[in-house]
Amino acid sequence: MEEAITAIRSALAPEATAESRAAGIAACRAVLGALDPTTMPAVVAVAPPNAATVAQIVGALRGVPPDQLLDLAITRLRAALPAGTVVTPVAPFKFNLVPMPQGTRP
After folding, report:
1. 17 and 37 both lie in a single domain
2. Residue 42 and residue 12 share a domain
């Protein structure tokens, strides 16, 4: 238990690294699970992404048009909604153009 307290203390330091903070989070979850295991949700440890993998994904998406990326993101977000959720359609943004008189410059 002392190791968990030490990990939490080092994670709370202002100059703590990302790895130290991740260790502190894991220690907090371990302490909470030890205190009340019935209310502790199941936590799956996720490894940080590999920089080479992220670079490869960004490189693959580099040539995709922005509107196609937005459509993909919207589709994925809608798929993540609970079943039966109704999404109200949004009206497109409209604005009026004001014509400027010819020959006048600010």
Report:
1. yes
2. yes
Q: Same domain, yes or no, for 31 and 66?
A: no
DSSP 49-102: PPHHHHHHHHHHHTTS-HHHHHHHHHHHHHHHSPTT------PPP--PPPPPPT
User: Is 93 within a domain?
Assistant: no
Strand, helix or coil for residue 18: helix
| Domain ranges, residue 15 | 1-46
Distance CA 39, CA 83 (A): 26
- What is the residue type of 7? A
User: What's CA 106's distance to the chain center, in Å?
Assistant: 44
Token digits of residue 101: 């008189």
Q: What is the pLDDT of residues 37-95, one digit of tens each?
A: 776 566 666 778 888 888 998 898 888 899 999 999 989 998 899 988 888 888 888 88
